[in-house]
Amino acid sequence: MEATVLREIAEEFGAPVYVYDSGQIRSQFERLTRAFSQIPRLKLNYAAKALSNLTILRLMKHLGSGLDTVSIQEVRLGLLAGFAPQDIIYTPNGVSLEEIEEAAALGVRINIDNLSILEQFGTRHPEIPVCIRINPHVMAGGNSKISVGHIDSKFGISIHQIPHLLRIVDLTGMRVNGIHMHTGSDILDIDVFLYASEILFDTALQFKDLEFIDFGSGFKVPYREGDIQTNVEELGERLGGRFNAFCKEYGRELTLAFEPGKFLVSQAGYFMARVNVVKQTTSTVFAGVDSGFNHLIRPMLYGASHEIVNISNPDGKERYYSVVGYICETDTFGSNRRISEITEGDLLCFKNAGAYCFTMASNYNSRYRPAEVLWHEGKAYLIRERETFEDLVRNQVDLPALFDPQVADAH
Ligand SMILES: Cc1ncc(COP(=O)(O)O)c(C=O)c1O
Predict the structure, then answer these.
(1) CA-based diameter of the chain, in Å?
(2) For the domain that residue 304 is a member of, what is the CATH number?
(3) 95 pLDDT exceeds 90?
(4) Beta strands in 163-313 (DSSP E)
(5) Residue 354 annotated as lining a ligand binding site
(6) Is 156 in the pocket of ligand 1 (CB under 6 A)?
(7) How confident is the model at residue 152 (pLDDT cuts 50, 70, 90)?
């Protein structure tokens, strides 16, 4: 998005503020669909956890996406946004049987990732088909926190437990309609993806009632110019061909599903915060903004590097800055970044702020979560109001009489 438009949005709605460009989301959705055009039945289920604002979910539905959810609350948001239950897949990890039953009662597709729940669910509801999340024991993903398909991971049912899994399916009489894997986020090497897919194909042959195979996600997006990214066109070519061949071997046309989060929304998001203070120390020039990891935690949590641009002075002379937040502990957005000269009051824009940014925001330090704005066909729409003091205290049960006898006496 252009700096002038972003500045106008910050003027109108205030800062800090998240802005999402619907056009960029659409073009990513279309790009992925095109990449897999040789697949007769392709289903993209947007991973709601990346960005779960209702308007974004409605946009995804409008584009023809299904929805990947990990909690009963995400399921409810999806239904509220108008998704049909059968277009929602529920892929929880470590949740209670009751929560899974609640999702099943809402009619969404169920994905189960441990044998204990599989056995209990199959015994109680043999008539409800389920998908199985497999752990293929593959090390993939950009860092240890987002690598989830390896042998030490808590996710999925090990490929070495397939005989046990088949016994449960057999004894309960349940039906397995899908096989799923998700090995991690930010996967750089599509060969790793293809290797894990072969494991999934081998496993799939052991289930006769499949309707779909879900390859999860993990597409790496670029974070700066020239950065590496998953070549989805090549993946589409190679995995697509292999999938079609597999369907012939399986004897039926299956649906190929993905559940992209970052790929669809990361680059469409812009986070803007105003510079409160420029502070020169003996070693560094800090630009301190009116935000912190309470609004954008990825740099501190994952070491993620978001490009930072001074949109108040885009063509100014570049200097080195460390951009930091106002949280009462180390709170660094970026160290030693070359940014156009910063003056107090300038607006800094953090790129790739669409995925796992607002959804991970909190009220730490009793700060308000920011507003969200959708930029759609040349117009800005407020899609979430900035929080207020009332939001901070809304659910608190204030007991003033508990420690103050005078208040107690007055009652
Ligand atoms: C099961 C599952 N599917 C999909 C995703 C989305 O991954 P990404 O944002 O890398 O596309 C995740 C991310 O954590 C996930 O856990």
Answers:
(1) 81
(2) 2.40.37.10
(3) yes
(4) 176-180, 212-214, 255-258, 269-280, 285-289, 308-310
(5) no
(6) no
(7) confident
